[in-house]
Fold each of these.
Amino acid sequence: MRCDHCATDVPDGVFCTRCGAHQGTAAEVGDPKTRENRYAAHPGEHVVQPSVFTTLFPHLGQQKIHEFRWAFAAGLAGILILYVAGLITAAILVATFLVPVLYLIYLYEAQVYRDEPAIVLGFTIGGGALIGLVLALIERGLSNPYAGVGNPLRNAGIGAGMLLFIGILIPIVQEALKPLPALLLPNRGDFPETVDGLVFGIAAGLGFSVAESLVGFSSVITSLPAHMAPGNWIYDLTTLAIFQPLLQGSATGIVVAAIWRYRRGRFARRELGGLGTAVVAHIAFALGTLLLKDSQVNALFVLVWQATVVGAVLIYVRYLLHHSLLEEAAHMGFAETVCPNCHMHIVASGFCPNCGMALTAAPTSVKRARKPHTGAAPKAQGRKT
Ligand SMILES: [Zn+2]
Ligand SMILES: [Zn+2]
């Protein structure tokens, strides 16, 4: 059949395998070409949905996503148990490492680094951690933002200078420096896709987050007794385990993805908006947290604010990734493969004709198993494995 949107002869299917457009628009809402109700990395979801795992772990299929969700939930339950038992130091350490360790497992699972695990991991997670360490020590020398964390009786009142420094200057400096490790990656030419840049950026941001949290809480970790009354620590633990790493990871993911797009000659409004979103969201997160804590409102509001900012950033990541995948995936040549999302045997170019998944976001093992399809007119498919 001939695609209505890119005018290429493609196999029959619900989606065009070349441009990803949704064929036959009767029951669908929106533009079939941009198909924002079918997120390109996980076609079962809408683009505007603040889902953590299908956004920051784009290479995983449905089954693996569930495993990661369960692992994350188990980690959070573990932190809660440690908190209730009064083992605050242990809870802080688990919270600091939970998301970054899951990400490390993801990178291994999807083989995003292909044949160079040491170089890629070293330059992303390792480089991020190194920059985080240096920057956090400098920041700590200039101020001590974590003094009094978890202590409800701490002195209220922050000066305007401190507000500008912690709430605005530090976020801007961090967003400028966190992408460096991914940009200095020596073999970055082997990873031309924007989805790769996004994942490397997230990895660097998470490495940074670990170092920043460890330095920030180092005095607490070393000075608290191993066992104590739980107190108000649950709020700081929630920020530390969930919102802090998600913010640091997704903001840097956006910045590096935008730079990857620039390298491909595709830097436009959407990418510029991404850089703006990363910086503004980071400032909103830091400044909002500081002001809310300072005004002595219920600590729950701080978490609601952080969740709102992180949710907005996640949606921007999806929006950027969705359109990058649609624009970049139209050139892969027909090949026999198995769709990692719907598990159908397909003859496909850039997109699964059955579910519309962008195959550039498939795990490396699936990409390597592609067999070039030799045949004048690729035929329809549909054998379920
Ligand atoms: Zn098409
Ligand atoms: Zn599929």
Amino acid sequence: MQQDDTHSSKSTYLLSEMTWPEARRRFKEVDIALLPVGAIEQHGPHLPLDTDAFDADYLARQVAAACSHPKPLVFPLISYGVSYHHDDFTGTISITNDTLSRMVYEIGMSAAKNGITKLVIINGHGGNIPTLKFAAQMINRDARIFTTVDTGETSDTDLDSICETNNDVHAGEIETSTSLYVRPELVDMKKAKKFVPEFSIKYLNFSAKRSVEWFARTSRISPNGVLGDPTIATAEKGEKMWKIMIRNLVELIESLKNMSLQEIYEKRF
Ligand SMILES: [Zn+2]
């Protein structure tokens, strides 16, 4: 799963595995960090509760592994997220927006003190979006560093061309395919059931181009927690999806890495 150089001290990018002298050296070499954030919540009757947490961490590590030297630093995963909307399904362990935003804010401020000037939050869970954007905005306000949150914005358009389901938002074709590729042993396809929600108001459809963002408890709109069609998921689709997500994020990170803050804000193409 991880590339060979994950553990080589020369090229390590996992902050958690560095000694402090090594971290001091790496923070001088590179000023960009990836912070994966996930969730522990129901993912239908066929996927594990840590799907979003694992995926965010996996993506951050794969992106760093695929980047040129000096590679971006990967911060330890924040496993828990804002999942109150899945509360009616057992096993969902949720923290509040306040707690998550506070934690991300403080990690970002501490990262900035260590010399990070670009922080890319790799978010595995849609329910975290408002909170993470709030935290990113506050980090930018107070530390004056570049902050961004990617919840798939860099690849959504490309993934749409592979995904056949409309409104595939949770434990459906995409998440089941990506899980089948990296952790097939944790996917129970015999229990995978399609549930694609549709709404009478077109602006409420999740994948509509002109949709509003709105909030609902999942149990109100899906009996088994699935919002999408996991039955047509395959490992092959998952492999393609991962490749696209990694490729696009690597492109973003490499561009950011090679620019000063001044250039990011001012350079025009
Ligand atoms: Zn998920």
